[in-house]
Amino acid sequence: MSMALPWTLTVLAGVTLALAVVALWQSLRAAFGASQAEAGAAGISGDRADLVEEKTALLRSIRDLDLDREADKIADEDFERLDGRLRSRARDVLRLLDEDVQAFRPAAEALVARALGTPAEPQSPTAPAPALPASLTPASACAGCGTVNDADASFCKRCGARLGAGEEEDAP
Amino acid sequence: MAIDLPFFGNLVLCAVLVMAGYTFATAAAAGRGRPHMLSAARWGTYATCALVAVAVLLLAYAFQTHDFRIRYVARYSDRSMSWWYLVTSLWGGQDGSLLWWAFLLCGYTAACVRWMRGRYLELQPWVLATLMSILAFFVVLMLFAANPFATFPASVPADGEGLNPLLQNYWMTIHPPSLYMGFVGWSIPFAFVVAALVTGRLHEEWLHATRRWTLVAWLFLSIGLMLGMLWSYEELGWGGYWAWDPVENASFLPWLVATAFLHSVMVQERLRMLKVWNVFLLCLTFILTIFGTFLTRAGLISSVHSFARSDIGIYFVWYLALLIGGCAALMGWRWRALRAENRIQNLLSREFAFLFNNWVLLGMMVVVLVATTFPLISEWLWAEEVTVGPAQYNKLMVPLAWVLLLMTGIGPLIAWRKASGKNLRRAFRVPLLSGAAMAVLHVGLGPLAGFPPTIDSSLAGDVAALAWFFNVAPVLYTSASAFVLGTISQEFWRGVAARMRAQGERVGTAFVNLVARGRRRYGGYVVHVGIVLMFLGFTGAGYDVEKEAALGPGEVMEVQRYRIRYDSPRMEVDRNKRMIFTDMTIMTAQGATLGQAAPAKFIYRTAPEQPTTEVSIRSRPIEDLYVIMSTVDSETRRGTFQVKVRPLVAWIWIGGFVLILGCLVAMWPSARELLGERR
Lengths: 172, 679
What we know:
Number of strands of chain A: 2
Distance between the termini of chain B: 50 Å
Distance between the termini of chain A: 73 Å
Oligomer: heterodimer
Largest sheet of chain B: 6 strands, antiparallel
Strand content of chain A: under 5%
Number of helices of chain B: 23
Shape of chain B: globular
Largest sheet of chain A: 2 strands, antiparallel
Structural class of chain B: alpha+beta
């Protein structure tokens, strides 16, 4: 019989074994030798990854719920309660994601300044925080519970009531 | 030979065990507040998986080079087998299939580790630790009870015993891997749920993480079940596709629970209810896959699949006990966190429909589980082994399946939380009308086409209601099917119409966008269509006709609308078997030729006492003509034949294909998911 297949298998086994050894080496290095700094950075980005994950999940849930309403699969009042809850959580998550980045902002600006060659102007650690984008500035207060909501909010983040009876954002 | 392959194989298996232990330890350390160990655990997992792959490659090498020093190789292969069957021998017997199990688990594990990089950092250590513990169990099993590299103590045979002829079939080459992919695939979601329980992160995170993994596992499990049915239908030669054989049941049990899980997950995602229930279902699914492997491999209950009996049973019993105890303890520990935030407030609500569907599926599971293990139970209780036959299964399963079919149609029509009367009237009108129309059609036209709405069922038992049910089962099933199809069409149509109104799209565009936007939902509906088509195929079994005859060459037998003429026997020989065909001509009642058939017996060199029956199947959408040659006399050339007309069987396979398609739609990642995951 042809020996091509057994040879292929031998070579494959050899390569796989080598890969196993490499992976083991990497593992041992990570466990006993690697710098702890990398791990620290991983921890921070891990929280962020969780938030991004949650954001994706929330957006998907909001869209699914929307589909349900379009298909007449949920009563309006139930829809509004569930949707309000999802949206308020999504808003929190988005804000947290934003704040997460804010912490790095001065450092990033310093890096940019250095790269561009311009002397970094605000060296003081207590530089004024950059203004929030307009969409995040709080504006409308809920008529029901008085909670201050974002300017573009359709529903109150606390009680879920519809905000600003006048604005018809989703007119067909 | 320069290297001692069996010894090397054993060495690799030991190395796998050590590596799995090391990875488990690093993962646990990472989980207990030393995050830098996570990277070590990840690399350790890769190393472990690579070692398992080495073991598989070594065994494959041993098969290709006919290394009969290894008992497993000698037992499941011989020198006459083609290279392809030598590859499939890897999973042909018990010891090898355990290694194959471990290998597939490693494939899933490596893919999952790669996929998880940079996220689920809290869950990851415990996911890895769980997966490693599962792997360790299988390696222990191989090292101590069913070693694929075990050698003969004394002399080495000159040739092997060969693979069981029944397994030398193309379906068989893909059925076990697919089924195992389905079984093993549940390890990943199970690992996630254990991680969620250990870390206490019991909100929707683990559900989102396991979404696609559960669909992949479910898909493979379904494909595996279907391939098993095809194999049974084409190769076993008894004319059926499902016999409630313990091993078929072993794969059906996790499928039922997994299906329940896929549905109840939606309730938790939407309303944050049924948390305990979902954790329970997922744990149960995994436990049943292990139980299934146990049934398949330990030969606990005799079955056509029990190709090997051995002493691995006790290991499985302990492991199952450990799993059940562990899951129960974890759930008890997190009981407070698992308690629902909401309760079902209304019986006329989507969530209750889902829960009801879950009960029916679990009810079916319990029936199958009890009936499958009944020989054991009865032996234990009354010291007498009582086996449950297919008729007993059908008595309970046929009505339950009908309820399930109905729920497939009802569930999607009911609104979440609370359905109003107006909403219900609007939703149910079209499906009910289509169901009623089908019933009328069936009663009116069915008898003309040979499908009367009622049958004299042999299943009709002593209970009057049940007897009535079985007699009218055909029309009940067809009208329920039409009802479900009405529901699904309406769902699609309403979605399309809404998009056409709101976005001004044309029908085609609206349809594509609708499905793209709600892939899981509409993919799920396509799966439902597949299920309906399969039920249509099962309903056909009520109209089966069967006839047996002994014929000499040139003689003709009549079955329903067919005339079948036996022409002559014919023998062919190839390197590992003799094949005796009997050529036949299929004709219409008027005598016009429809085609040829050549049912056969294959007599394998390695197993002459066990000839295989090769049936001849003429498959058409309306019915299959299934011809079996029971015997043929070499002197008189007379043969005895069994001919079955099996209506609508083809729809089972078509339905299966649609089901796969729907599943693919549901799990297809969006472009954003593909790109977005590379952060």
